[in-house]
Write a sequence for this structure.
């Protein structure tokens, strides 16, 4: 099932990427080839196979409920592209 | 004439759990801190950071799930719910998708005023997830930026989703009241809607029958932004009417249009449609590879269940059955919380009269707590003392009115019952004294005697005030009885 | 033989015996970096004065007889993917070009505790996505054996640095072969530990269920030393194994008697370069001469490994990279230009009366995300994000991601079965030696296939090591890969060491001007 340009455009929005016209054309072709390759997994019968999300059989990993000092605000906001000393700033999200 | 439609309501409640630290990191969850002062690389989603689950959050979730009679999943996992928003720094929320840790529970609701039949509301699931931060949109003109505070990111939330079993805004309100009370009894949350530690989203639609006899459902609407239980009630009332209008105008049915989200505007008293984005509903859930599953053993479940303590529904039932308290009064007491109920139980047990204890606590104790803005633990008269006073009332040593004076005095002075009664000069008046007194009264009030003889027994009431003047310790009930007896004998 | 030709273990012995000082060691490698790295490009950054200051402090402590760490005075280069507090962690990407980590990764903390001298930060494919280091947005790394060829990837910088003796030790990361493959192409020793053996806290995530940091050096002995310093349970990583720590550096020199090696025909199929085939088979004969027995085994699901990997890894990556949105850290697009762009589009749509188009138009926030990410990410990263987003999206999840997780279990079961009858699996680490720069950049699928022999270990979570075992006719290194059951790093290291005692491939060095 070939990948359509529309599908790729939709995925680009989901992925918050903006592709130029050239990129869209190239990406559609490349993804189509890759998806075609990975579709060979359909050959395998996995009806009775449990999915393996982790390569280790670990469970029940917890930490005690203890608070410790947070990072200094100045240090945290130091990485922010746009901040006012108190808050991160982004273009208005009204109505979003 | 009954309503032309049936209202169908389901509620999603998000509860912030009372933990010291966040769900996945050690930052404090204390409310009201300066913006971005309760964050760290983990809850701000910095590159390379990893989550580790807070044990207590899981336990509190488990406790709550058991209290609402949910099934506990023996194996549960964590999933990423992916979407982009500035208050969600990782670009995904760690939540639970297809294997929540609890499911299929219920909660009974009823109305003390009998406005709806008692019913059982089903609970689909309760799961754990992390909270997002806060975006502040400034409405000032020219204010182009929104401000983001990540203090709240990573706070543990329990999401409780009910079945769409409620049929009126009143029932929805009752569900919320009961749930909040339960959560307070369990001490898992401080349930403060103003501070955002309890949030409600409502789903509502209408079921109706068309003229041609077809059973139809209208599209479901999700309502958000309700800041109090009262707002939830009002929003649902408004929305039901609005949907009936829309149905009559458009005839749209469930499935015709996608699920709509509307925000409640409390000031304007209406709901407004919010911008709909289809792609945002593809959350691309998948198991979070940074977290491992949790296996809950039956032993652990039983341990937690055993430590739940007596819950509101059970306490109400016990108050009714064992202590003869009315439904209404049982509600009032239980709604006051565990500490007041404990106080009540001690008084009732010690003085031996559950109804009397209930009356006194509701009328006198609670009133003082409210007036002085104190809790029952700070109330100066301890249960044993109140019980002592009530026993004396029961035994006829002091009448109710005088006893109230005693209580007031005890509150003011901190003295014992005996001391206070002595201070107020309250003594038992023996029978012979009372009879003498009554004879005096009857002699002085021939008109009253005549009226009583003529059948007007209420007239005897006039004698009580006089009796009190002559002897403040005279028991009004006994005075009345004796007077009537004497008149009858004469 | 100069100082920089010695192995890390030899240098450590000299340091401990006070035959040489940490400052002298650090200076020797810094000199080599300054002389040769222009031609190789292994390092993105290095801080000579900081390194020398650390070295000095260690010398002082040694001189005072105070306790020093396991690696005291040994220079270690770190792939620019592991956070080091106060340092840049670019991840080879423009989007994090100026990102300074506010905390130490557990691995770097471990290195500091071991008194390593952190020499510098090595180049990598952007966010560890790639097999040639050509996807780095910040520089080109060349194979020291032939600078017209790639060093492999994604830990190409670390591999090249060790190969060129610019550092005795380096830390790399391996998600689909990114330590073992470049180690093979650069003629050095590199190991991917069992998943969960080394903490991922502070390792910038590419694919969370596959990523592992691991040691790279010129010998198994050196790899053992570095592994010992960084392995161990970390409560800050929920996927960290609680297995007891092992003194790998002590046990590595103990040979293994009665070793059974498994050879899988799936690793020797068509497409395997003749020189590689010959070198690997010769290596097997060396093991036989050391007393090992060889057995034919089968890994029937081998052919599906790359496909499985290229669903799981991009899916997890698409999620892990969602946080790079220009809001809290990293590159943000020029907002003014962004708003101007949107306005222009809005005007155009309005003029055309395109109501639907107007309705669909990005909000400023969405456009900010899209521009920031598109400006910051390179083409391979974008490709994988797109692939992963698609594989996880509604309607495709079952057919792709869920399916891949099931095949993953089958792949693991293949290994479990094989390890019932053999101690180790041996085979080539790559199908061919180092390829030319630019050779595969236009064919993503061809690039993915360089991971053919390495992805299965990541999928199964088992450890693997690559050691030099010969050269191609053209003088390019060839690597032998050994794979072991989970938690058997010790077995791998000892087996590798046995080979390195009987051969000298690992001592060969490229001729640098």
């Amino acid at each position: 099932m070939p990948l359509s340009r529309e599908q790729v455009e939709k995925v680009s929005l989901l992925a918050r990427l903006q592709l130029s016209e050239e990129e869209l054309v190239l990406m559609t072709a490349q993804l189509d080839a890759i998806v075609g390759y990975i579709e060979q997994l359909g050959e395998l019968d996995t009806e009775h196979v449990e999915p393996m999300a982790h390569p280790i059989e670990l469970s029940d990993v917890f930490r005690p409920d203890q608070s410790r000092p947070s990072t200094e605000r100045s240090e945290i906001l130091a990485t922010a592209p746009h901040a006012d000393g108190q808050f991160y700033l982004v273009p208005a999200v009204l109505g979003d | 004439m009954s309503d032309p439609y049936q209202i169908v309501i389901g509620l999603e409640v998000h509860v912030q759990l009372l933990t010291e630290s966040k769900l996945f990191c050690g930052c404090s969850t204390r409310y009201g801190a300066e913006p971005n002062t309760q964050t760290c690389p983990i809850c701000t989603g910095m590159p390379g950071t990893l989550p580790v689950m807070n044990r207590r959050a899981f336990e509190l979730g488990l406790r709550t799930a058991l209290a609402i009679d949910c099934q506990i999943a023996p194996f549960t996992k964590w999933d990423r719910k992916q979407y982009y928003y500035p208050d969600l720094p990782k670009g995904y929320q760690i939540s639970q998708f297809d294997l929540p840790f609890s499911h299929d529970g219920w909660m009974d609701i009823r109305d003390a005023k009998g406005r709806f039949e008692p019913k059982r509301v089903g609970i689909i699931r309760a799961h754990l997830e992390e909270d997002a931060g806060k975006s502040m949109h400034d409405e000032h003109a020219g204010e182009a930026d929104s401000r983001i505070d990540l203090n709240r990111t990573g706070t543990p939330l329990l999401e409780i989703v009910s079945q769409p079993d409620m049929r009126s805004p009143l029932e929805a309100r009752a569900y919320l009241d009961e749930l909040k009370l339960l959560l307070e009894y369990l001490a898992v949350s401080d349930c403060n809607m103003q501070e955002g530690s309890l949030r409600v989203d409502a789903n509502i639609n209408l079921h109706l029958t068309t003229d041609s006899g077809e059973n139809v459902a209208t599209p479901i609407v999700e309502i958000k932004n309700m800041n109090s239980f009262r707002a939830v009630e009002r929003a649902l009332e408004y929305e039901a009417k609005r949907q009936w209008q829309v149905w009559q105008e458009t005839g749209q049915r469930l499935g015709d249009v996608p699920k709509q989200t509307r925000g409640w505007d409390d000031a304007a008293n209406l709901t407004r449609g919010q911008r709909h984005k289809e792609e945002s509903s593809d959350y691309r859930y998948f198991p979070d590879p940074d977290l491992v599953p949790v296996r809950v053993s039956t032993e652990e479940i039983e341990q937690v269940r055993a430590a739940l303590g007596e819950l509101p529904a059970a306490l109400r039932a016990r108050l009714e059955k064992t202590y003869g308290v009315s439904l209404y009064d049982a509600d009032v007491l239980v709604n006051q919380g565990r500490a007041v109920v404990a106080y009540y139980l001690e008084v009732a047990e010690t003085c031996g009269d559950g109804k009397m204890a209930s009356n006194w606590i509701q009328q006198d104790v609670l009133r003082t707590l409210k007036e002085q803005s104190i809790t029952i633990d700070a109330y100066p008269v301890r249960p044993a003392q109140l019980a002592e006073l009530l026993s004396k009332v029961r035994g006829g040593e002091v009448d109710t009115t005088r006893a109230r004076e005693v209580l007031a005095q005890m509150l003011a002075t901190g003295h014992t019952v005996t001391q206070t009664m002595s201070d107020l000069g309250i003594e038992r008046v023996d029978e012979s004294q009372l009879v003498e007194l009554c004879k005096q009264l009857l002699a002085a009030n021939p008109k009253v005697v005549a009226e009583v003889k003529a059948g007007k027994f209420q007239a005897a009431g006039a004698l009580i005030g006089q009796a009190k003047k002559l002897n403040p310790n005279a028991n009004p009930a006994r005075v009345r009885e004796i007077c009537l007896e004497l008149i009858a004998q004469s | 033989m100069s100082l920089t030709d010695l192995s890390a273990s030899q240098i450590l012995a000299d340091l401990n015996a006070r035959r040489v000082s940490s400052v002298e060691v650090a200076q020797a490698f810094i000199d080599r970096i300054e002389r040769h790295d222009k031609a190789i490009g292994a390092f993105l950054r290095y801080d000579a004065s900081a390194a020398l200051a650390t070295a000095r402090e260690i010398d002082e402590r040694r001189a005072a007889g105070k306790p020093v760490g396991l690696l005291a005075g040994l220079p270690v280069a770190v792939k620019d993917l592991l956070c080091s507090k106060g340092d840049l962690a670019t991840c080879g990407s423009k989007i994090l070009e100026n990102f300074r980590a506010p905390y130490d990764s557990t691995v770097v903390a471990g290195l500091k505790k071991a008194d390593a001298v952190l020499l510098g930060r090595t180049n990598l494919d952007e966010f560890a996505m790639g097999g040639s280091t050509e996807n780095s947005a910040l520089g080109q790394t060349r194979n020291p054996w032939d600078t017209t060829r790639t060093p492999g990837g994604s830990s190409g910088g670390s591999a090249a640095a060790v190969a060129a003796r610019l550092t005795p030790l380096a830390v790399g990361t391996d998600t689909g072969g990114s330590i073992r493959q470049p180690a093979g192409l650069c003629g050095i020793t590199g190991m991917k530990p069992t998943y969960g053996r080394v903490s991922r806290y502070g390792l910038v995530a590419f694919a969370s269920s596959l990523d592992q940091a691991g040691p790279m050096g010129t010998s198994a002995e050196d790899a053992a030393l570095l592994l010992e310093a960084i392995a161990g349970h970390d409560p800050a990583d929920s996927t960290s194994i609680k297995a007891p720590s092992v003194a790998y550096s002590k046990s590595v020199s103990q040979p293994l008697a009665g070793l059974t090696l498994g050879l899988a025909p799936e690793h020797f199929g068509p497409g395997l370069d003749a020189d590689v085939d010959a070198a690997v088979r010769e290596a097997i004969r060396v093991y036989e001469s050391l007393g090992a027995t060889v057995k034919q085994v089968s890994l029937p699901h081998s052919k599906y490994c790359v496909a499985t990997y290229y669903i799981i890894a991009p899916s997890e990556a698409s999620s892990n990279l969602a946080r790079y949105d220009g809001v809290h850290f990293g590159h943000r697009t020029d907002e003014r230009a962004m708003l101007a762009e949107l306005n222009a589009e809005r005007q155009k749509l309005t003029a055309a009366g395109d109501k639907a188009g107007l309705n669909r138009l990005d909000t400023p926030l969405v456009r900010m995300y899209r521009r920031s990410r598109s400006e910051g990410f390179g083409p391979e990263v974008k490709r994988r994000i797109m692939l992963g987003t698609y594989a996880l999206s509604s309607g495709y999840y079952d057919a792709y991601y869920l399916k891949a997780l099931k095949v993953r279990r089958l792949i693991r079961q293949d290994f479990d079965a094989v390890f019932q009858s053999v101690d180790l699996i041996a085979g080539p680490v790559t199908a061919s030696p180092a390829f030319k720069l630019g050779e595969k950049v236009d064919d993503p699928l061809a690039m993915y296939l360089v991971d053919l022999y390495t992805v299965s270990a990541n999928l199964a979570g088992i450890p693997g090591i690559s050691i030099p075992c010969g050269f191609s006719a053209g003088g390019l290194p060839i690597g032998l890969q050994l794979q072991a059951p989970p938690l058997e790093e010790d077995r791998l290291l000892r087996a590798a060491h046995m080979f390195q005692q009987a051969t000298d491939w690992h001592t060969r060095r490229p001729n640098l001007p």
